[in-house]
Amino acid sequence: MNMAGCYKVTTNCIRNLITEHFKDGKSIRTREKLVKVSHSTVFAIIKRWKLRGTVENALKSGAPHKLTPRNRSFIMHKSKKNPRLSAVKLTTELEKKICNKSKP
To answer: Most buried in the list 8, 66, 67, 94, measured by CB within 10 Å?
Structure first.
């Protein structure tokens, strides 16, 4: 199941084009029609550009995931197969699986 957002991402090329039109002094509605994006998107891009000086996406904070999606599905499969399996036993089975995969 994919949990990614279902919104349209504006490319950096279009963002740069919007900022160039802004520097030329064109209005938000004119920029909206030229680039074919909504005026709220144009306004948000200009606001971000004024605030940070760039149109690039900001780095996301937070720790990386401990498990890969494959290992997560392995744990889900094992726990559905045997619901009484303890967390300690699940961990040891996962470690065995990982160790066996890494050995040549």
So the answer is: 94
Closest by CA position to 101, among listed 83, 65, 62, 74: 74
Structure tokens at 82: 């045997």
pTM over 0.90: no
Tell me the pLDDT tens digit for each residue of 53-72: 988 888 877 888 888 899 99
Kindly tell me if the per-residue pLDDT of 102 is higher than 60.
no
Q: What is the distance between the alpha carbons of residues 59 and 103, in angstroms, rounded to a whole number?
A: 35
Of the chain, the end-to-end C-alpha distance in Å amounts to 32
